[in-house]
Fold these 3 entries.
Entry 1:
Amino acid sequence: MNIKTVVILTFAVLALPGHAQVVGPDCGSLANAYGPFDYTNPDHFRNKLPIVEYEHFDAGVESLQGHARHRDWLALDIDYTLRAFPNHHRALYAMSRYYLTRQSHGRAPMRYTAQCYFERAMAMNPADGIVRMIYGLYLFKAGDLEGAEARFSEAVKRSPEDPEVHYNLGLVLAKNKRWDEAREHAKRAYELGHPMRGLRNMLKRAGEWE
């Protein structure tokens, strides 16, 4: 799956560089000793991200196995990465998988809930459509189809040329048997070059693919 990589709660505020943005009573502030930095900002990505990823988000952390030098700190490493870069796409996806799988097997919880990490990411950069897509994937896998549809719809509005967001919105619409809308987003995803044929096959089986 290509991760290049819930409406914002009323108490969420826009993230402005240099300010201590309070996300909410349970989700803390974006203020951090290092950062916070915007994952979509080219300067931050080039000059700040390598420092954080070297210390806290290597391939072992991303695969939920733990850092090569301190494997027992998995939850702490993901949390640190998401406090330094609240909208770090790959770390958000790792966090969501952690909450859906590893924590259910008794792993230690992180500082915030999964929902809080996503709220913090959306507050960091409200225009970042990929954050909403990853949030939608989390909700979809958690069985919240209504919430997933809302997040994917927000993602499409912010990233209308990204095939992944159209594909995922099409999937949840097909799950809800909203065939016309699902077909519309499926066709757009394929026009934009999405390689997976699962959505098209789902529509074909339902007799809803032209």
Entry 2:
Amino acid sequence: MNWFFIALTAPFLWVLVNITDQYLVKKYTDGKRTSGALVLFSSLIGIFGAIVIGLFANNIFEISSIDKLLLIITGILSIVWIILYLFTLEIEKVSGVVPWFLTIPVFGYILGYLFLGETLNLSQQIGSLIILFGVAILSFDFSNAKQRRFKWQVALYMIPACFIIATIGVIFKYVTVVDQFWVSSFWVYVGLGATGVFIYIFSDSYRCQFLKMIKKGKTKIVGLNVGSEIASNVGNLLTNYATLLAPVALVYLVGNFQPAILLIFTLLCTRFFPNIITEDMSKRVLFPKIMSIVIIILGSVVLLR
């Protein structure tokens, strides 16, 4: 069962990334749609990634121009979903945002069926419907005991974000063969870094937010962002390694426990470290959230059967 503990480490690392994102948004941004600094941090890291891969990978220019263009587009799309995700963190607690990412396989199956000729079996169809039902519960605001309000802004941001992530995966799979993984990754990072440079030059608001955040947080901001990127990438590597030791479906199923792990972490932080992150611990808010996460995990079990 060594693979299980390796796979389980990844969602713990991703949870730390999610908490760091929420902390940075709340601590170092000024309100709605002011996460430009974090967007630039995420995009400019692409320059570093492209340089590192370019130094060690071979034949990075020996793919077709169409493939290069498609991969660069995936890098650009990566910034789009990050922007939508950060916008959501400005209006919703992270424990209510992360479960939305479990809709990505649903969109992935649909896109794979339409464009890659992949088929949807009965379990995948039922699992997808269960996941969507769980997310639907999560989309309502239960803080008001007398009125249930649909969180339309959260849905407006996260549905396109998750669809874009699934689209990125389909494009990457369409373009990439096994022995060209790092070559494809290089061009994705090129698109990511180039988008960051474009935003820095042409978006006065994002550039000002970026410089303001660095001035305000200095080494703390840089350290948190670098640490977050490292944790995210280590989590990805651990997941990939675990797939070599166990069936892919089982490894991804372990990763789908991320929302539950995140909720536990946020509750602990609320109790012991409220300056980092807080969670509404009232029963009328917490119970539907727990129920939604349980339903989504059950849907994931069915989806990956």
Entry 3:
Amino acid sequence: MAKNRFEQVDERQEDAITLFLVRKDTGAHGYVSCPAAISNGRLAEDQVGREMPQVDAFRSAVRLANELKAPMVVVDPDNLWQAEWGELFRED
């Protein structure tokens, strides 16, 4: 079975769910950003979720992307991506 592929970007994207992975003193965390423009009218304004453990943020981003049938990208400056989540690639 093919692994899921996710594009790594450097900043929030206006046309995709963006998963942010960050390292804090308390460990690895993440949060999700969803632009209103891709919400099919469900959101009046852009939304940014609360910070949570990184695996929960990943699951939340995937669930939201599937629900909205929207692409998902990842901002990961601290290299926190877990290989079991799929392939993280950078567009040239």
